[in-house]
Design goal:
Layout (H helix, E strand, L loop, with lengths): L2 E4 L2 E8 L3 E6 L10 H8 L3 E6 L16 H14 L5 E6 L1 H12 L4 E7 L8 H17 L2 H11 L5 H13 L2 H12 L5 H5 L5 E6 L7 H10 L4 E5 L6 H4 L1 H12 L3
Parallel strand pairs: 3-4, 3-5, 5-6, 6-7, 7-8
Antiparallel strand pairs: 1-2, 2-4
GO molecular function, one term: catalytic activity
Pfam families: Abhydrolase_1
Protein name: Pimeloyl-ACP methyl ester carboxylesterase
């Protein structure tokens, strides 16, 4: 277990390998263990791979209330400064991808490349914003178990039992107050379309072919707006292609890293 204190909270993180830095941001309601296949693979391929638990998740401090995406981005920047990492390739999945876009908005000069996995950038409808706020209230009332069981087979394709077991465990273990705070923050997120147009570094957009939460159309929206970006659709995967089909996901990321 590795932890440190930045921005007044404790953050748990993995920091493995040596070389240029690849930083990975998990989604909701997960923790840094979702990136274990990537940490193990790329740290053996000459990269320093850093994956942290966002505030409210895993081994990091739970801060009730609302956690806006700029706060997550600030935590990442502070952790990397603490670790002596000034420039890095940054990747995120789902909410993690939206946090990556927030990092692009706040400190683009530190970024060497981007991985935007199973995420969305365009404006959210008022219906989605209302859903996030209502779900936050529900998680505080009921805990994570009911929600986790309802959404599991949207997070991963049903044929992947091993990935499903991992995802179920992460969701059941997520602190309700942390997950609720993140949902409220996402309800207030901006439209990142203009941010995408300003990206100047190599960018990979990747999505599972069976993703219901952020379907291929959402990935195509991002691909069309990031100059020079590449789109990879991972066949047979849903919302978690990095866990469902790690070899295919890692190969796509390796192609991106070779350009940075």
């Amino acid at each position: 277990m590795t932890t440190t204190t930045v921005n007044g909270i404790t953050i748990g993180y993995d920091d493995e390998g040596t070389g240029d830095a690849l930083v990975l941001v998990h989604g909701h309601p997960f923790d840094r263990s979702m990136w274990r296949p990537q940490v193990e693979h790329f740290s053996s391929q000459g990269w320093r791979v850093i994956a942290a638990d966002l505030r409210g998740y895993g081994e990091s401090t739970v801060v009730p209330g609302t956690t806006p995406l700029p706060v997550f981005a600030s935590d990442i920047a502070a952790l990397l400064t603490h670790l002596g990492v000034e420039e890095f390739v940054l990747g995120g999945l789902s909410m993690g991808g939206q946090i990556v876009m927030e990092c692009v908005r706040l400190f683009p000069e530190r970024l060497r490349g981007l991985v935007l996995a199973d995420t969305s950038a365009g404006p959210e409808s008022e219906e989605v914003r209302r859903y996030r706020r209502e779900m936050a209230d529900r998680l505080l009332r009921e805990g994570m178990a009911g929600y986790a069981d309802e959404v599991l087979w949207k997070m991963v394709a049903r044929h992947n039992a091993e990935a499903g077991a991992h995802v179920r465990k992460m969701m059941h273990n997520a602190p309700p107050a942390g997950a609720a705070a993140a949902l409220r923050g996402r309800a207030d997120r901006p439209d990142y379309t203009a941010t995408l147009a300003a990206v100047t570094v190599p960018t990979l957009v990747v999505v599972g072919s069976e993703d219901e939460y952020t379907p291929v159309a959402d990935a195509e929206y991002i691909r069309a707006r990031v100059p020079g970006s590449a789109l990879v659709v991972v066949d047979g995967a849903a919302h978690m292609p990095n866990l469902e089909r790690p070899e295919a996901f890692n190969a796509a990321v390796a192609d991106l890293l070779a350009q940075t």
